[in-house]
TrEMBL record, chain A:
One of its GO terms (molecular function) is nucleic acid binding. The keyword Mitochondrion applies. The keyword Electron transport does not apply. It comes from Cyprinus carpio (Common carp). It is found in: Mitochondrion. One of its GO terms (biological process) is regulation of DNA-templated transcription. One of its GO terms (cellular component) is mitochondrion. Keywords: Mitochondrion, Transcription, Transcription regulation, Transit peptide. Belongs to the mTERF family. This is Transcription termination factor 3, mitochondrial.
Automatic annotation (TrEMBL), chain B:
Residues 302-358 are annotated as: Disordered. Signal peptide: none annotated. It comes from the Eukaryota. It comes from Cyprinus carpio. Belongs to the pseudouridine synthase TruB family. This is Mitochondrial mRNA pseudouridine synthase TRUB2. PANTHER family: PSEUDOURIDINE SYNTHASE-RELATED (PTHR13195), PSEUDOURIDYLATE SYNTHASE TRUB2, MITOCHONDRIAL (PTHR13195:SF0). GO terms for biological process: pseudouridine synthesis; RNA processing.
Amino acid sequence: MHVCQPCVSLLLSRPLSAALQQSTRALHQRAHLTLLQHTLIELSCSSYVLSSVDLDAAVHPSPLQEISEEEAVQIHVPSALPPESSTLRPYVDESETLSKLVQLGVNLWKLEQRPNVGSMLVRLDFDADVAPKLLLLKDLGVEETKLGQLVSYLKSKKFSKQSVAAMVSKAPYLLNFSVERLDNRLGFFQKQLGLSAEKTRDVVTRLPKLLCGSLEPIKENLKVCELEFGFRGNEIQHIVTTVPKVLIANKRKLTQIFDFVHNTMDVPHSLIAKFPQVLNAKFLRIRERHLFLEYLGRAQYQPSQPNYISLDRLVFLPDEVFCSEVALATLEDFERFQKTL
Amino acid sequence: MTTQAVRLFRKMNGLFAVYKPQGVHWKHVRDSTESNLLKALNSCPPPAPQLALQFQLLSGGENCSSKDVVLSPSMVPTLADHPLVTGPQFHKVHVGVGHRLDAFSSGVLVLGVGKGNGVLEHLCKSHVTRDYTLEGEFGKATDNFTHTGRVIEKTTYDHVTLDKLERVLAMIQGANQKALITYSQVDLHTQEAYELAVRGLLYPHGKSPPILTGLRCIHFNPPNFTLEVQCVNETQKYLRKLIHEVGLELRTSAVCSGVRRTRDGPFKVENALTRQHWTADSIMQAIAHFSKTTRKIRKSGMYRQTAGPLNSSTQVQEQTRSQTEQINLEHVELSSSTSDTVVDRETPVTLSEGRTKQ
């Protein structure tokens, strides 16, 4: 049996609202028209089943009507892009810029959290805006633009090409700065720390964030090291060249660690200056390990005494190695001890 | 089609205990556990990207004799499902905190994940007792009752001996027992009250000030001493003030140098996770370990809720009291033997409850 019979009967028995009363007759007429079409197609032995009755069947061709290949290729489907969206997901497949950015490995999800960045990215044209900047970053050597001036300035201060590339990748906002600002910063570091040019370059390459942020906290940290902790000038230099993070560390946490290491563990200044990694470690870790060693009677930090434990081994070894080699106890003992603190 | 990440997320439901180190805010503990759980969830492989139909112009194959380009369809993964565009699969895991510990104290902190957060509420309302170890030091008094505060006065402590300390502790314990009986809303002149008191099943109903159900000195080495306390409805500041008051009663002054929670209801310190174990797999193991306890707490909480509107009947009141008391039975003991026999103790009560109710 032809399935369309129940469809047609359904159409005729559909309840119509009062507003549509006038068009009922037209509907019925159209229904008759489609009924005729149905029977014609049925007679022409087509195997398609009509699932919906198209009221405008007389005007447009039926979607199931067969057409030639050339016409099929010429059909253009307008993309149903939403006019506004909170993410870039609906636009990625359509936009050439966005898909190329994703293929290059840009974290679009992170960037669209920032205000207005999403709209800006959607409006960018890849060839005009994005490509030149990418080529510039790749070469780091174009002389005409402002970014190029910065790079040439850094090169004049004898930063090698790899170090410039490393600095820019770690702290990309460096490229926003003017040349004078960078000059001031480098001069400040060289004067305050009293380091040679080579060492300043090394420190800045390892931690380019030093050049980006404000100089006040760095000055404060240096003052704290000198006055509160009582380190001498050459000790501070050694600490900063080994662990530049001390300059931008949190002042309160730094003081807490130093206070514990110097006063509770009785480690003199010279030893701390020799192993400045201790100042960069987590306070809780140092405290728990020291108290464990003290409980076991192995807390010996003087190099002249037997069973000496160096500070960097205390801090940097993972727990299993620390327990087996330094404390000579099992990991379970260490955990049980931690639960008594 | 559930992915591995979704299956793991659905398993993250329940309670577990964590050992909070001293000097750390409880929020930091909660945030670390949440970020570790999220890390584990987002490290699972993402679902396969959806494929979309694309028509591509390819040169005709060997079958075609002509050199025309031919449109051929192919299924290509959409970039909209790329992880760089969608971001991590999970942004948030609900991790809740039970009875809080302030930054100065250390010890057992109960955390709940997912559906366990509802059970946390029942745990807080169920008047469970908590075990603390308090370290005290004679000789000085500070403004915030801790050894790190500003010193207000210094006194001598040579006259303090162990039996004087025990006498003071016994006096404090007596006062607390009186308060316990008052707040337990039990008429002292009944046989039933006597039996409950003999078995040690009295505990406060409704709102009450902090009450110590047990107090004893476990270590005395002047100037340092250690007290073990079981209490209900307490805050850590109250316990530090207790040390100060003990000093005052002994005609000297004392400060608290450590507050350590060894037990929070059924969660004991042996099963608490230390900082190295705040990772997803250890947490899942701990949740599995405590699943029975969690179910019991949920059942007792639901029973209390259904019995709520019928509070007028004294019979139901007694039933709720004995039900929750059975859960706390293990913990009101002063000798604090650590056994997991709460299971056995509870089942006969539930059976009898069912019978008497019907």
